[in-house]
């Protein structure tokens, strides 16, 4: 244990002497929060979004709905369905609101239907625009009820509304909470990718010290190769866990984000993922032939699996075959566990997720052990 402690202290000393590495360890978790915190904060309001309004069922109510949405957002414009789809695809529009055939009658009977919101910018924009549409519909249905009860035309109530700028209060707490939960998921998904890269430094370190001869000089001392690897692995795990703690503490106390899950539960899930990430790094380090090759392999593997797993892009918007493919990625089971807990799940409900993550950890441990003892390139370590 003294030898393991020496390696730990040696790596810690090297780390504290590198301001760039320290900045990355502290800054990357904060950066992952800032990226999504600012993005979601900006998009929760539709006033800055370019919205196309397609009215395929011209009538008193649908026309008024379009007018109100234009008043609420100066960048909202009326477009045809064809032009709207083209502008949505090209990025000229952020979202498209389609009032389809039958929407006029459905609004008249206080049961709005055939109203669709389209966006290729994800659930955040979609939900923000839907919230704006629902707000206008709530105002409209309130006036329709009032006109029916009071015996006056809807147009008079609408005109009074426009003139006096009456605001009708509605509850938006649930929508806001949904945005916070989605933001939390995106932050933690990005963090998972950063944890993989942080743990990946271990594999690069092993190969670098082998290439520059540091390892062989250490092996000329009473230090054994197994103790050397254990010490480096524990230090790598400590660094990754530190990033987890920084991120969760910042979410809780600096940004006041409520992820809808106990922070202790989040730490537990991410800790298991961190152990798996370190073992994966060892497996890759023993498999690759050089530091450059393992660096390139990690970049491709970590980025690709993060994209396919739903850590960076919500699984719900992926095609069906990609959703099936996502289930083979470790990050998917982290995100799925968090989602389950957000939906009032308990420890038993995520037992499969934990078992799969531990299974991945065991798999990578076996690969690393096999490569360490059997591979000819690794035998030089022993």
TrEMBL record:
Q: Which GO cellular component terms, listed alphabetically, does the Swiss-Prot or TrEMBL entry include?
A: plasma membrane
Which InterPro entries does its entry note? ABC-2_transporter_component, ABC2_TM, ABC2_TM_bact-type
Enumerate the spans annotated as ABC transmembrane type-2 domain. Answer: 150-375
Q: Where in the cell is it found?
A: Cell membrane
GO molecular function (one)? ABC-type transporter activity
Protein family: Belongs to the ABC-2 integral membrane protein family.
TM ranges:
20-39, 187-207, 227-251, 263-287, 299-322, 350-370
Provide the protein name.
Answer: ABC transmembrane type-2 domain-containing protein
The domain of life is: Bacteria
Alphabetized, the UniProt keywords read:
Cell membrane, Membrane, Transmembrane, Transmembrane helix, Transport
Q: Say which species the protein is native to.
A: Listeria booriae
Q: Which Pfam families match?
A: ABC2_membrane_3
Its membrane topology: Multi-pass membrane protein
User: Is Lipid biosynthesis there in the keyword field?
Assistant: no
The reply on keyword Membrane is: yes
């Amino acid at each position: 244990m003294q030898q393991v402690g020496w390696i730990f202290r040696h790596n810690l000393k090297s780390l504290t002497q590198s301001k760039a590495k320290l900045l990355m360890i502290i800054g990357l978790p904060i950066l992952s929060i800032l990226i999504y915190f600012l993005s979601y904060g900006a998009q929760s309001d539709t006033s800055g979004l370019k919205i196309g309004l397609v009215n395929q069922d011209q009538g008193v109510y649908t026309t008024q709905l379009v007018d109100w949405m234009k008043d609420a957002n100066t960048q909202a414009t009326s477009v045809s369905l064809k032009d709207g789809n083209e502008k949505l695809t090209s990025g000229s529009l952020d979202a498209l609101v389609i009032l389809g055939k039958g929407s006029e009658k459905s609004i008249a009977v206080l049961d709005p239907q055939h109203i669709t919101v389209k966006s290729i910018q994800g659930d955040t924009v979609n939900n923000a625009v839907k919230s704006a549409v629902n707000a206008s519909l709530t105002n409209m249905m309130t006036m329709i009820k009032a006109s029916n009860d009071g015996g006056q035309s809807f147009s008079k109530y609408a005109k009074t509304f426009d003139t006096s700028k009456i605001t009708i209060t509605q509850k938006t707490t649930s929508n806001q909470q949904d945005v916070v939960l989605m933001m939390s998921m995106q932050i933690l998904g990005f963090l998972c990718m950063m944890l993989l890269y942080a743990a990946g430094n271990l594999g690069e370190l092993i190969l670098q010290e082998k290439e520059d001869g540091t390892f062989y000089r250490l092996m000329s001392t009473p230090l054994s190769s197994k103790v050397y690897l254990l010490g480096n692995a524990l230090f790598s795990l400590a660094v990754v866990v530190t990033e987890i703690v920084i991120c969760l503490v910042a979410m809780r106390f600096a940004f006041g984000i409520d992820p809808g899950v106990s922070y202790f539960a989040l730490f537990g899930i991410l800790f298991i993922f961190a152990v798996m990430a370190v073992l994966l790094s060892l497996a890759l380090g023993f498999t690759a032939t050089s530091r450059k090759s393992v660096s390139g392999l990690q970049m491709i593997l970590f980025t690709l699996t993060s994209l396919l797993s739903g850590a960076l892009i919500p699984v719900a918007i992926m095609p069906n075959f990609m959703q099936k493919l996502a289930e083979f990625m470790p990050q998917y089971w982290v995100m799925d566990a968090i989602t389950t807990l957000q939906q009032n799940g308990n420890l038993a409900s995520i037992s499969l997720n934990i078992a799969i993550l531990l299974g991945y950890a065991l798999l990578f441990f076996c690969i690393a052990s096999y490569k360490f003892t059997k591979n000819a390139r690794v035998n030089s370590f022993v």
